[in-house]
């Protein structure tokens, strides 16, 4: 397939582009900068210059390809309304361009806020509906296009897609440990996160693109539930700093923006995903990555 990838030089997108090219697919990556364009070109991918605000470019990119993988996001934590607006417009544009073609449109989903007090499963419907909801309700918006002839797939990524060079939540948690001289966990440390190694997540995206039926919700989850205390202990071991508990109310002060996520349970199962696609994660665990120096 010829696949148009947004977020093609991001943390997950970089691995997805490598996975797709390695499996013999053609890739066109969306690039905001000249540096991103050069990175894609060196890999052997085609380049489409633009960003998520360039709706005409997104439409053309979708029309020119046989499949779309939408991973880009502004991640503007200071302006969530703009973030949601942009995401919703991008999904409407690209999925709308594919209407009636039965081509795949795979987008990044989230596990945050799906359920409480148990691991999320693939059958759980996202409560995010409408422009004002998280990510602009993009998962449910995209799934509306199944009835319009688009093979829509949502991949819900674990909150930690980990590995050396990860710029995400774990990098911020590690940075807080360096800054404060202690590795902290909120409360009793029993809040849990799902986790997946980056190459395993990329392989799941490819398998979903190749084989998953329309309307599938897939979970990029290798470990169902890693406690915040286990994470803090691994960070403390890697940095050789003490491990301490802090009051959950101090999490935002201690960790910065990631504090509100570190106090939120985001455990999830991937049993149905594995059975559907034969996907078997093989990378190191989150703790193994941390203790092995991936964030040191």
UniProtKB/TrEMBL annotation:
Transmembrane segment boundaries: none
Q: Which domain of life is it from?
A: Bacteria
Q: Which residues form the NAD-dependent epimerase/dehydratase domain?
A: 3-213
Q: Which CDD domains match?
A: SDR_a7
State the organism named in the record.
Amycolatopsis iheyensis
GO cellular component entries = cytoplasm
Gene Ontology MF term list: aldehyde dehydrogenase (NAD+) activity
Name of this chain's protein: SDR family oxidoreductase
Q: What are the boundaries of the signal sequence?
A: none
């Amino acid at each position: 397939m010829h696949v148009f990838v947004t977020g093609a030089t991001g943390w997950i997108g970089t691995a997805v582009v490598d996975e797709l090219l390695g499996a013999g697919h053609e890739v066109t990556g969306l690039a905001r900068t000249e540096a991103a364009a050069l990175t894609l070109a060196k890999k052997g991918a085609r380049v489409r210059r633009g960003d998520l605000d360039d709706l005409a470019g997104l439409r053309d990119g979708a029309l020119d390809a046989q499949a779309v993988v939408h991973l880009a996001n502004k991640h503007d934590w200071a302006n969530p309304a703009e973030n949601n607006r942009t995401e919703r417009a991008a999904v409407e544009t690209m999925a709308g361009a594919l209407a009636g073609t039965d081509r795949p449109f795979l987008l990044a989903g989230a596990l945050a806020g799906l359920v409480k007090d148990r691991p999320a499963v693939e059958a759980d419907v996202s409560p995010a509906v409408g422009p004002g909801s998280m990510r602009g309700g993009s998962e449910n918006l995209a799934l509306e296009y199944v009835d319009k002839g688009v093979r829509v797939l949502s991949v819900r990524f674990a909150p930690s897609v980990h590995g050396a060079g990860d710029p995400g939540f774990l990098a911020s948690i590690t940075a807080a440990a360096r800054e404060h001289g202690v590795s902290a966990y909120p409360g009793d440390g029993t809040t849990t996160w799902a986790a997946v190694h980056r190459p395993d997540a990329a392989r799941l995206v490819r398998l979903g693109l190749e084989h998953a039926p329309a309307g599938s919700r897939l979970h990029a989850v290798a470990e169902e539930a890693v406690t915040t205390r286990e994470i803090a202990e691994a960070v403390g071991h890697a940095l050789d700093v003490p491990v301490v508990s802090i009051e959950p109310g101090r999490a935002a002060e201690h960790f910065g923006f990631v504090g509100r996520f570190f106090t939120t349970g985001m455990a999830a199962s991937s049993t149905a995903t594995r059975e559907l696609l034969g996907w078997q994660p093989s990378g190191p665990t989150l703790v193994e990555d941390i203790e092995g120096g991936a964030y040191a």
